[in-house]
Amino acid sequence: MASDNEHCGDRGRECTITVSNPVLRGMYPDPSWIWDATREEIVLVNSSFELVPGLPIHTTRDLVTWTHTANAVDEAMSHRLLIDGVEDSGGLYAPTIRRIGGRYVIVCTVARVNEVKALAAGCSQKDVDGCRAAQGNFVIEADELTGPWRGPYWVAGAEGIDPDIFEDGDGTVWWTQTRPALHPQWDGQTEIWTQPIAPGTWTLQDHKTVIWRGYGMDAVWAEGPHLYRVGDYLYLMTAEGGTSFEHSEMIMRTHAPRGFAAALAGFEKNLAAQDIWIEPARDGERSVVGHDNRLFEACKRNPILTHRHLGAGEPVQCVGHADLLLHPTVGWLLACLGIRETPGEEPGETFSYCGRETFVAPVVWQHNPVSWKLDGGEPNKRIDIVDPGWPVVAPGLGRLPEKLVVDVDEDGLPCAVRGVDSAGCDCAAGNNAACPAELIQLDDTRLVGVRGRDDYRFLRVDGQEYAAFTRPEYTMMMHQDSTHAVIVMAEAESGQLTAEITDRGDKRCIALGALGANEWFGLRLHGNRLEFLARQPAPDSIDEGTMPDIALIAHADVTYARIMADCDARFLSTEWAGGFVGCLIGVKRR
Prior knowledge:
hydrolase activity, hydrolyzing O-glycosyl compounds, Jelly Rolls, hydrolase, 6-stranded antiparallel beta sheet, 590 residues, Glyco_hydro_beta-prop_sf, globular, Alpha-L-arabinofuranosidase
């Protein structure tokens, strides 16, 4: 995956490159990333739900070209993780990747597991029991990014989803995640808890401590927590509002120069000196979130990232579930998910087909402005030089940048990144710029399988305008979930083409007519319409010697295609189907 416009020419000289957001298109949600000093590049992992292989890992040196380097979960590990038994929009949720003890470590949750289905599919009782004891939470680790990955290590006693793993300066490793509040003050209230964990055995130590319950009144679904040390301060960043139109990102901090454990103990000691005790909701736990006393101080500018204030006409919605990264040459960056929406016919009606995608934005740290006293007088100009301040995402824009302008040095490394909107960019490429056609063979490493869709190999649909073709000896499917899909197949002898549409589990068939000589067939998402197409492959697009190995043409040119039929595509949207995933396009041999 590369930039829309490259202003570089050959490497070996400084240049500027413009990249459109999202940087990873198609269903690449819940990004987590690190700067990997050993590889001298960024490493990013995404959720994969029920896809196998899972937890795709991409790397980049310049934020421009992203390489699919590995999958942390292969077919064998997916079996141990009970993917065979997950329901729609279940599977691998919200990983966090970090380097701990010289190893790559990913923590994650497998969700919506049907134990009966998993056992029937041959998963072991040991893994079913381990998953249950850990509420689906696990650790995998590897010495090399490309594997082999070891695990899963089920984290017994973990509760909830969206785990974070954080190694503090004193060597203590903390497991942090979100769970429903036991006695919620409002519907959807969650709480963030943390606990030390022993690396190697990956067993929780000591006791759980609740550290956050949301930024304000009616703050729902505080989740996706990440801890960061910046100087003497420990920052907690969380998403709020759920992965929908109210999604947002909040940040809090506490002064912890001697470590997180010391900060927790010091907070409790200070309260005890005032004869104050914060009663935990669960026996054997602690809480540092009281009515009047909280360990973590919230940023007054929260949320630091959201699009919920931009209205239904904003083309990118639901932004959040972010992770911060400190790059050695460009400074701080943020990766998050967002959803590109296609407008519907009714006011405020939108539909998405690509799922949640990965966006990137630059970040600067700023202190609060110099404050004037209410009674006049000189402003307080003192700034604590050891105070990092607070992160500002995409400064000057107030939203995710449409494009990233990356200054690259003569070694091909980024030296500056700034975010711009289309009006501030001198290049013409946009979020829907045409992608060149790709010829896909069945051994392409980007292809994935979906449980219940035996023999199909899928690509992520990665454009709001998207077309793909296959040969008549293949069957094509556009998949949303098990109850929303379309299958197109050609009858072997007559070439008659039939489409089977599944909408909320109900099936109907459309007779499309016969293919012509040497024609391939395909599907095109075009706005909220789905077109059934036929065409002969362009002679200059396929080498005759490799044609028998080509299973799919993605991002296909439809200029000379004929439309055999079309239908409403909204049944394939996330909004119509429900759940968390985007569309896949796949084929299998007939």
